[in-house]
Structure formats: C-alpha cells, structure tokens
Design brief:
Length: about 220
C-alpha cells in the first residue's frame, strides 16, 4: 500500500511528538504480563484509543483529563489514519489520591460509528466498559464472546484508591487533528471517512509501529 507523504513543515511538530508518546504507551502496556492485551481481543478490535499520562485527581470526587490517539479498523481489516481525541469527566465514590495513568481502550463493537457521526460518546452511559486486564487469559480457545463494547488496559503511578472511567466523555479533537495533518479545515470525522490524500512521515511511522505492535495489517 503506497501512501503519499506530505512535507514535514506542513504538519504540527508537537502533534508528531504526541503520536510517538502514544506509541510508547502502547508498547509499555503490551510489554507487561499484567496489562498485555490478549491477541484474540486485538484480532477482533474495531478501534483502539491510546491516552498517555491521563491525569486523575480525586478526593471523594474524581476528575480526569487526557489527550490521545484514535485508530479505527476498516472493513478490509486494515488500520486507518490516526485522529486525536480528548477524554474528560468526573465521578463520585470512595477514591482518594493523585494518579497518572497510561490508558488503552479497545473497542469491540459499533461504538466507533457513534464517534464518527456524533463526535463523542459517554463511557458507561452510551457504552459499556470493563477492565480488560481482568481477562488476561483470553485466547482463541476460551470461547469468549467478547460482547463488552470497550475493554480498558492501564498502567498507573501515584497514590490512589481506585480507577474508574464511568461517565467520562470521549470527544474527537478537530483542532489537534487538523494540526497533525497540516490542514486547518480538516476534521477528525473526515480523516475517519478516508478523506486524506497525504500524510506526514510522523503519521506513517506511527501507523507502521502501531500495526507492528498490534499484529495488524498495514
């Protein structure tokens, strides 16, 4: 597959750094037996979101914020071009502390269609989500139906009494995505629809690294 490459000066260089940080986050998640995403889930994934260093501050009332990368798999099984997303929201409960979390969300069902048309979803309300690292022993012989819409995998650092994503808002980030592609009028939804003629070397390297780690098709 040949992809035209745009000049480096056309794209936002900070966006390229964000891509590389996301790739490092995915590598760290996959390198640990406690957080590794099962191959059977990767094979059946329709999309993935990687959020490096999502910050959660809480003292009975929690607040979360993070910026990440969304990858969507096409009908042909190939991963498309990346777009940027934000995650933010609050929750109530017995939680305390300050936490930085590397987070990967693996989508199994039609939630991505909502993101492509509406631009946002609410975790736990619009879609169901579970901690994927509770299912570390899934393989092709388990017969698991993988019916949950989103599985979360995370690495955390800091003092905390819990980690939850219920009620958090996921939104497409048009401004950051436009900066990534060096086109001010480009939206994340247009990228997800395949309306991109050229990509930067940063995007190309990210796609290559992402498909290598996930075992997908480039």
């Amino acid at each position: 597959m040949i992809i035209p490459v745009q000049t480096a000066s056309a794209a936002d260089t900070s966006a390229g750094v964000r891509l590389q940080e996301s790739l490092k986050t995915l590598s760290r998640i996959m390198a640990s037996p406690q957080t590794e995403i099962p191959p059977v889930l990767l094979q059946k994934a329709t999309a993935m979101i990687i959020i490096p260093d999502m910050v959660k501050a809480s003292f009975f009332i929690g607040a979360r914020y993070g910026k990440g990368v969304l990858m969507v798999r096409g009908d042909d099984g190939r991963w498309g071009n990346p777009v940027f997303v934000t995650l933010q929201g609050g929750s109530f409960g017995l939680q305390m502390g300050l936490q930085a979390t590397d987070l990967v969300l693996v989508f199994r069902r039609g939630t991505v269609l909502d993101m492509k048309t509406r631009g946002n979803v609410i975790l736990g309300a619009d879609v169901s989500i579970v901690a994927g690292n509770l299912s570390l022993h899934m393989d092709e012989n388990t017969g698991a139906d993988l019916s949950t819409e989103i599985y979360s995998f995370s690495r955390s650092a800091g003092l905390t009494a819990g980690f939850a994503l219920q009620g958090a808002h996921l939104r497409l980030d048009d401004a950051a995505t436009a900066g990534l592609y060096g086109k001010s009028s480009l939206t994340a939804q247009q990228v997800l629809a395949g309306r991109v003629d050229t990509v930067s070397t940063d995007i190309l390297r990210f796609r290559e690294g992402f498909t290598r780690i996930t075992g997908g098709t480039f």
